[in-house]
User: Fold this.
Amino acid sequence: MAYETTPSVQDVRASFQRRAGRPAKFEKAADPRKAMVRLLKYLGPFKSLLILVVGFIVLYSLLGLAGPYLMGRAIDKSIGGKDLHGLLVTALLMLAAYFLSNFFNIIANLIMARISQNALKNLRGDLFAHIQTLSMRFFDTHPAGGLMSRLTNDIDAINQTVSQNIISLIASILTMIGILASMFILNHWLALASLVVIPIMYWFSNFIAKYTRKGFRELQKDLGELNAVAEETVSGFKVIKAFRRNESAIETFRQKNNAVFKSAVYANSYAMLLMPLTGVLGSFFVIVLASLGGWLALKELVSIGMIATFINYAQNFTSPLRQLSNLYNSIQAALAGAERVFEIIDTKPETPDLPDAVPAGRFKGEVSLRNVVFGYNPERVIIRNFSLEIPAGQTIALVGPTGAGKTTITNLLTRFYDIQEGQIRIDGIDIRAIRKADLRRNLALVLQDTFLFADTILENIRFGRLDATDEECFEAARMAEADHFIRQLPRGYHTNLSERAGNLSQGQRQLLSIARAILANPSILILDEATSSVDTRTELRIQKALLRLMEGRTSIVIAHRLSTIRDADSIVVINNGEIVEQGNHEELLERRGFYHHLYMSQFKGNEI
Ligand SMILES: Nc1ncnc2c1ncn2[C@@H]1O[C@H](COP(=O)(O)OP(=O)(O)O)[C@@H](O)[C@H]1O
Ligand SMILES: [Mg+2]
Assistant:
């Protein structure tokens, strides 16, 4: 038989859990048709293969119809006519029909798997490549988790639909149309009786399914909350232990655990109910058809074989019918996912380089900001009329309270964001006229939280300049004062950080990022609070490494530590996006102005 009449409890549960697994997927696409058209474009290159798939599904569905018909004929002609040879022939024909039908189904699915995986590969590729082109503004406003879910959950939802649901949908519809057509061709009265009973069955099983679905949705929500509690407790165990909150963590977990228990019992009870109920309904259908058929048979209006054929058809009808509503939900979910994916693909990339942007070699490193005005959104100005000249090779310290706009200035120099008014020049050239790649090759950033990849220490250093030799990486590590600790690790430079990252101290991670910057050998260096979350033991080492890194380069240093600031050629005090004072440490202290105030409240006691 082409379809199982009664699904097993496991099937039911799996189907609901699959769909309930991602609560976000219950939402519908705002414009499903548009999402569908765009999704189909990814299948476009495989048009001829798709036609082949549809051809095989048609064969599969048609041959599925042959079985019950042949069985009915065997009962009437061969058994009724005591024709053993005919019986044998029909049996072989049935076998051939079922065999071929399923064979075609397998072929269709195999081809479809190739098509869909190819299409998905292209979609994933497009999405990932496009994400790489997006502006810093995009990443600042889209949390990483959401993007990850585009690349994993949404793509996965699309995968399900493209690789499986499309075939199921076509097969279900074809089977249902085929069965209805065959029924009416074979016998009007039995066909009409089926038409009355089928909707009742459908309605009943849908009724139960609705509660099961609701149950599993609830369960999934509770499970999500339970997982969140578990995850928080595991990743935040240090804080929990330090504040002695283990008891309350256990209590929270107990409550969520209880909720999961309750909703799991509810959902599973309904899922259990679904199977016997569908069974009973199926039998009800058989009984109605058999009784009506029997009555018609008594009046010699139908043959026994015909009744058997109908019962078989009826059983094959309900399963695709039930599948349709599942398919509808999955397809909606996939389209919603596709819409979210396309939304990212449609996001405008970072502004491209000007057509006449000049390729630039190595900068001398003279930086000049003139009357710069900038706001992340134009209504709220963050940087006001900001002018600053930094001669090549000098070190400038930017200081000011949190939120003053220090990091924003660095965002403008790297062109992560473009200024609204004024001009930024490097070596006398407006940075908008320099290709971004060239600009950024000349700049290196060392930030407060270093990002290290799940790769070896060696490769993490090499990230600073991909064509660097091993020897150059070692040299950079030596200059960054990192060589010593790296060599003490059991696998040295080949230590994989995916396994050991947790064991590197904040300071050691910082040293690695300094090595990376040394290797990159930029003409302009930006240090944004690079030493603020470092233990004092490594602090001196980092200071030494930083001084070496800053040698001979234009350096813009944002720091909490007085030591870094004091040695700067010039200190620029920023408040509210404006320069309020500028000079060296002694000059500024003498002035007893903003810097003096800041120094008293922030740096005093931080001296090392
Ligand atoms: N990506 C962003 N989008 C919108 N506003 C931002 C963004 N980054 C920073 N801001 C705002 O800009 C102001 C300056 O921030 P920032 O330059 O990070 O300050 P600082 O580094 O001096 O502490 C703050 O008011 C902050 O809220
Ligand atoms: Mg900052």
